[in-house]
Structures are given as C-alpha cells and as structure tokens.
C-alpha cells in the first residue's frame, strides 16, 4: 500500500480509539443551535457522525476517481495498441514498397548490364572484323609489293632473284 493510504487508515484508527476512550463525554447531551432552532443532542456523537459522513463521502470520491482513472487508462491502452498496430502496418507497407523498389531497380540494372554487354560484344565483333579486313588488306598489299619487286628483279635479270618457296 502507498504511504497516503496507510496514513489515512492510521488517522481513522486514532479517531476510533479517541471516540472509544472518551465515549462518556461523546454521549453527554448538550444544547445545539441550527440558527433557526435549538435541540438537545450529544455533541461528540454529532461530530463523530460528521466525521463518518465526510469519510464516506471522500471514500466514494476516491472510488469514483480511481474508476475514472482506470477507465481512462484502459481507453489509452486500447488507443496505444491501435496506434502500435497502425505503425506496424505502415512499417510493413514501407518494407514492401522498398522491396518492390529494389526489385525494380535491380531488374533495370540487370537490363542495362545486358544491353551494355550486348553492345560491347557487337563492338568487339565489329573491331575483330575490321582488324581481320585490315590484316587481309595489308597481306594483299605486301604480297602485291613483293610480286612487283619480283617482277622488277626478273626484268632486270638479276641473278639470284627471290625464288618462290
């Protein structure tokens, strides 16, 4: 129990002990005035009755206050759980969106990569054909020059001309 609760119980116990010890004084009748009329009653019992009524009123007030706090706490807990569920769903949605975005980006990257590979292969094939053509042209040019030199040498009747293999 909390300190305030224990303190209230101790104070009520002290009032009860005080009333029990002084019961004869509490029950002694006296004249009491309510401004418009007078009546005979024991002052101690009237005051004890007031204390009991106020205590009951405060206990009811505390009970109502505790009930409203518990209901508010329950309502807030439900709202918190609803917000937590909503946040989890939003996070799940963001993860799914991110996953979709990454898949799209990876697919585009793979497509670009395959296009680049295809383009590179085409360029390499073109370069290879070009090199092959140039080698063939160079070979033909060298063969033509060698043939021309051989003809010149044969025209000049040079001994020891280059003999074909």
Q: SSE order, as H and E?
A: HHEEH
Shape: rod-shaped
Number of strands: 2
Which stretches of 5+ consecutive residues score pLDDT under 50?
Answer: none
* Mean pLDDT across residues: 89
Total number of helical segments? 3
Distance between the termini: 120 Å
- Report helical residue fraction: over 70%
Cα Rg: 57 Å
Give a quick account of the main beta sheet: strands, pairing sense, barrel closure: 2 strands, antiparallel
**Structural class by helix and strand composition:** mainly alpha
Largest beta sheet: strand ordering: 1-2
Provide the β-strand percentage band.
Answer: 5-15%
Description:
By secondary structure, this protein is mainly α. Helix content is 82%, strand content 6%. The chain has helices spanning 3-21, 23-26, 43-155, and strands spanning 29-33, 38-42. The radius of gyration is 57 Å and the shape is rod-shaped. The mean pLDDT is 89.
């Amino acid at each position: 129990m909390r300190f305030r609760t224990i303190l209230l119980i101790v104070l009520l116990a002290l009032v009860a002990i005080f009333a029990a010890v002084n019961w004869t004084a509490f029950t002694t009748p006296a004249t009491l005035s309510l401004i418009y009329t007078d009546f005979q009653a024991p002052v101690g019992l009237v005051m004890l009755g007031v204390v009991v009524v106020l205590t009951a009123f405060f206990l009811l007030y505390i009970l109502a206050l505790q009930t409203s706090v518990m209901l508010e706490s329950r309502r807030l807990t439900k709202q918190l759980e609803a917000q937590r569920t909503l946040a989890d769903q939003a996070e799940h949605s963001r993860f799914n969106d991110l996953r979709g975005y990454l898949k799209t980006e990876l697919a585009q990257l793979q497509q670009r990569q395959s296009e680049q590979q295809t383009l590179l292969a085409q360029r390499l094939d073109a370069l290879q054909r070009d090199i092959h053509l140039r080698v063939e042209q160079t070979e033909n040019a060298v063969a033509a020059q060698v043939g021309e030199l051989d003809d010149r040498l044969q025209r000049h009747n040079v001994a020891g001309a280059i003999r074909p293999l």
